Automatic annotation (TrEMBL):
<dbReference type="InterPro" id="IPR006094">
    <property type="entry name" value="Oxid_FAD_bind_N"/>
</dbReference>
<keyword id="KW-0131">Cell cycle</keyword>
<dbReference type="InterPro" id="IPR016167">
    <property type="entry name" value="FAD-bd_PCMH_sub1"/>
</dbReference>
<keyword id="KW-0573">Peptidoglycan synthesis</keyword>
<dbReference type="GO" id="GO:0071949">
    <property type="term" value="F:FAD binding"/>
</dbReference>
<protein>
    <recommendedName>
        <fullName>UDP-N-acetylenolpyruvoylglucosamine reductase</fullName>
        <ecNumber>1.3.1.98</ecNumber>
    </recommendedName>
</protein>
<dbReference type="GO" id="GO:0071555">
    <property type="term" value="P:cell wall organization"/>
</dbReference>
<feature type="active site">
    <location>
        <position position="365"/>
    </location>
</feature>
<comment type="function">
    <text>Cell wall formation.</text>
</comment>
<dbReference type="InterPro" id="IPR036635">
    <property type="entry name" value="MurB_C_sf"/>
</dbReference>
<dbReference type="InterPro" id="IPR036318">
    <property type="entry name" value="FAD-bd_PCMH-like_sf"/>
</dbReference>
<keyword id="KW-0285">Flavoprotein</keyword>
<dbReference type="InterPro" id="IPR003170">
    <property type="entry name" value="MurB"/>
</dbReference>
<keyword id="KW-0963">Cytoplasm</keyword>
<dbReference type="GO" id="GO:0009252">
    <property type="term" value="P:peptidoglycan biosynthetic process"/>
</dbReference>
<dbReference type="Pfam" id="PF02873">
    <property type="entry name" value="MurB_C"/>
</dbReference>
<keyword id="KW-0560">Oxidoreductase</keyword>
Length: 369
């Protein structure tokens, strides 16, 4: 194999095994929404489950690390790139529906655009994922961090995740309980991180169900656009969520500098409720003025955006070519040509600023391969 950039080769373990199209030294930046990151030593787009297996064998036989990439909307690739095999999962565009009692079980391939699946469900009157409109990325990425927005989480609907288990080298069906979902977490990004390659996800949806209106932003939106007592349709909620997202620079496919982000860069910290008075002290306000949401077991969830703002980092704050979005305090953006090192320097400044002021540590959301 040569060092020539982007060189392609076909690989198969044996006769009657699928050929996979491997490329070498492929820049990863174009495959991420941040548009940051150096090259992958090997890059393969796996278009079927058989190709997923073949690519894992290629990596295993050479002792190379493997990184699974979806839509690249929640990753921060280093400037050095990835010294292993990056597998972009494109498997397989097949949508299957099964009626089960009052519900519809909708199965989608890991490589499908998530927003397309939401629109498909909404157009058929299937409730359950309408508030998750406009989120970038693919179906396969949704269970990984239990995607959530505007009061809904994908875990509320997931009944089955089909995945290739690298440990047992076989395909498995994981049910809802096995996925161990929590706030922005699951089996796939915690204790079994890197073990499974998701190839399909099944969502339980409610035909004819009402749209979820649990979030203040959404209720405000409809207070001005609907008559009192009128309930929005699923399609109206889908459109409203996309419109609110667009104003915040958080909509899939949005252009400009604010579009070059990984969405929220920090998770909302969940802390013991006693920490609230310490936060109030740092903010110079009363404890009851600190925004907080009960998170069970004596814990509260604090809005990371509020902490970041109160620590003195405002929308548009820039360090070199990395900045806080001009429309959303939690999104770190690439102003154009930013390196991973620049983004990490900004991240560290924000994390240290918040920790210094409030004693609360902000956890990063995007994954670093
Ligand atoms: C503008 C913007 C807005 C966003 N808004 C939200 C939001 O409101 N709520 C929210 O929760 N997230 C949000 N995100 C984050 C992101 O869109 C989601 O986390 C999304 O589900 C990631 O999917 P992906 O296909 O892009 O995964 P990637 O970014 O490619 O990968 C993310 C992680 O999932 C793993 N992964 C991906 N596919 C697979 C697979 N098939 N099998 C196994 N592992 C896999 C990767 O290895 C990596 O660890 C936003 C991002 C952007 C850019």
């Amino acid at each position: 194999m040569s060092n020539s950039s982007g060189r392609a080769m076909l690989y198969s373990q044996a006769v009657l095994r699928p050929m996979i199209d491997l490329r070498e030294f492929v820049p990863l930046a174009p495959y991420t929404t941040l548009q940051i990151g150096g090259p992958a030593r090997f890059f393969v787009e796996a278009a079927s489950e058989a190709e997923v297996v073949e690519a894992t064998l290629f990596a295993r036989d050479r002792g190379l690390p493997l990184f699974v990439l979806g839509g690249g909307s929640n990753v921060l690739v280093s400037d050095a790139g990835f010294e292993g095999v990056v597998m972009r999962v494109g498997v397989p565009i097949s949508r299957r529906e099964l009626q089960e009692g009052e519900s519809v079980l909708l199965e989608a391939g890991a490589g499908e655009s998530w927003d397309d699946v939401v629109l498909y469900a909404v157009d058929r009157g299937y409730a359950g994922i309408e508030c998750l409109a406009g989120i970038p990325g693919d179906v396969g990425g949704t269970p990984v961090q239990n995607v959530g927005a505007y009061g809904q989480e994908v875990a509320e609907t997931i009944v089955k995740v089909r995945a290739y288990d690298l440990q047992t080298q076989s395909f498995v069906d994981l049910d809802h309980t096995a996925c161990r979902f929590g706030y922005r977490r699951s089996l796939f990004n915690t204790e079994q991180r890197g073990r499974y390659i998701v190839t399909a996800v099944t969502y339980r949806l409610r035909p004819g169900g009402e749209a979820a209106l649990r979030y203040a932003d959404l209720s405000r939106y409809f207070a001005t656009t609907l008559d009192a007592g009128e309930k929005p349709t699923l399609r109206q909620v889908y459109d409203a969520v996309r419109s609110i997202r667009e104003q915040k620079g958080m909509l899939v496919g949005q252009g400009g500098a604010d579009g070059r982000s990984a969405g929220s860069f920090f998770k909302n910290p969940v802390v013991p409720s006693a920490v609230v008075s310490q936060v109030a002290l740092g903010a110079g306000c009363r404890p009851d003025e600190v925004p907080q949401y009960p998170a069970g077991d004596g814990l509260v969830k604090l809005p990371a955006a509020w902490l970041v703002e109160r620590a003195g980092f405002h929308k548009g704050f820039a360090m070199g070519r990395a900045a806080i979005s001009s429309r959303h305090t939690l999104a770190l953006v690439n102003l154009g040509g930013a390196t991973a090192a620049e983004l990490i320097a900004l991240r560290d400044a924000v994390v240290e600023g918040v920790e210094g002021r409030f004693g609360v540590h902000l956890e990063q959301e995007p994954v670093q391969p």
